[in-house]
Design brief:
mainly alpha; 9 helices; 0% strand; elongated
Length: 279
């Protein structure tokens, strides 16, 4: 399926995105053809193993009133039963018979994967209207990628990247940045960092500079808040430090202060640290 230009607004390269979707549709059509071929081949598969002279029934009951979906579900159940039976027979089979069983199981598993892929395709959203739609489509593309050949992986990677970029662009469009002076909580701070990180990742050259400047300012805010909280751990007068634990905490506090102190401040802090260590 293809999406309209409105649905991929903000995409950096609409033509490439549409090309990726066309390639994906071709891959799905190829899967359908594989399913038909595998189903035809499966009807001719026979094997003989120790303790079992007959192959389990593989024929789907012919019923003109049975829908295609019901037939598909029935076929999948049959395949699962075939695999389970073959696994049981594998235990007592000879090496030659085991090789044939593995070949059969691989073929049945491939057919199950094709059936599952077609069922997943039926659940794809018709339009990428919501974030949930985009997430479902990403999940579908990722599941298809797991079954893709090496030649097709790049197609799915391109489409997954496009969808993730589309989601990020919509999230940015839905976000209202808060001026730094109005940020009052760590939750707001984290939201702003997430917003500008996404802009840094997906934005243009000018947007990346803008985003990095804001990330630098937000880092300064977080650092200042951290220093304020750290002051709550400031040790009292040395006379009150009457246990090894209190003295150890006081020394740790001084060590942290030294990391960001000026040259003049460091000398005084070092003297305080020595006094703690002497005590």
């Amino acid at each position: 399926m293809s999406y309209s230009e409105e649905e991929v607004v903000g995409s950096s390269d609409l033509e490439k995105a549409n090309a990726a979707i066309k390639a994906n549709n071709a891959a799905v059509a190829n899967l359908r053809q594989q399913m038909k071929s595998v189903a035809e081949e499966a009807a001719d598969i026979t094997f003989s193993v120790r303790g079992s002279d007959t192959q389990p029934e593989t024929t789907t009951p012919k019923d003109s009133n049975t829908t295609a979906v019901e037939k598909e579900k029935t076929r999948r159940r049959e395949l699962v039963e075939l695999i389970n039976t073959a696994k049981e027979n594998y235990i007592t089979a000879s090496e030659t018979e085991r090789e044939e069983i593995r070949k059969n199981i691989n073929g049945w598993n491939e057919e199950i994967q094709i059936i599952d892929a077609l069922q997943q395709e039926a659940e794809r959203p018709l339009n990428l209207t919501s974030f949930g739609d985009i997430d479902r489509e990403i999940a579908y593309q990722e599941s298809m990628r797991q079954q893709a050949t090496q030649e097709n992986i790049a197609v799915y990677d391109a489409e997954i990247a496009r969808l993730k970029q589309l989601k990020a662009e919509r999230e940015r469009a839905a976000h209202t940045p808060i001026p730094i002076e109005n940020i009052n909580t760590y939750a707001e701070l984290d939201d702003e960092v997430a917003y500008y990180t996404q802009l840094l990742k997906y934005g243009t050259a000018q947007e990346r500079i803008f985003a990095q400047q804001h990330l630098n300012d937000l880092a300064d805010v977080k650092k200042a808040w951290g220093e304020t909280l750290a002051e709550l751990k400031k040790p009292g007068d040395i006379s009150t430090l009457d246990t090894i634990e209190k003295l150890s905490d006081a020394i740790s506090y001084i060590d942290n202060k030294i990391k960001t102190a000026s040259a003049d401040e460091i000398a005084a802090l070092q003297q305080t640290k020595i006094a703690y260590e002497d005590k």
